[in-house]
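does this look right to u?? magnesium ion version
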Amino acid sequence: MSELDLRTLSFTDGRTLPVGTFYCIGRNYTEHIREMGATMPENPIVFIKPPAAYLPSGSKVELPAFSQEIHHEAEIIAVIGRDCARLSPEEAAGVIAGYAVGLDLTARDVQKRAKERGEPWATSKSFRGSAPMSPIVPTDFFGTKEPHLTFTLYINGEQRQFGDSRKMERGFAELISYLSDIFDLRAGDCIFTGTPSGVARVTSGDTARLILHDCTELNVIFY
Ligand code: MG
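got this back:
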């Protein structure tokens, strides 16, 4: 296998973009909020992973030694196609270059301690290899700016999570509009839009296959 490119996002039609910042949304599916014993936030919960957290499909994902409880969170990713700021939801729909799926890998034990102490989530969410993602399907493929997407995560061939974009509390354009009021977004930035229920631990030797139905998929192995 050729060496994996860690700095470039690939589209299924061969286009590329440099890897940008990962803006991740917390608590965007009611059933996941319930399983975490959390409540619906008034504003979206936002945290960031750096570009170096990215891994392409086909990667081996190192489980960090500082955690005993790395959880998978399967999510749809909207990829920003051009630099932008302060967009209305209508405008925000127009800057989405494509959609992918990825894992918001989370050191749940470290995150729990951070929550108890009121500390930031950076170490629990943004560690090396914490953002593996599939090739990106161009927006044109769907023929609509807010497509209906479903995705399934299999661990060692067994279904663990199923998601449906219609069950998101906030849609793609609404999230991007919100983020663009706060941050200057750049081409290659990736919006992780939250996970449905079914999050659980992965261990060394596990394989993950995350499918965005009829479009693209992510395959990784943990070690
Ligand atoms: Mg998440």
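The mean pLDDT is 96. idk if thats expected tbh
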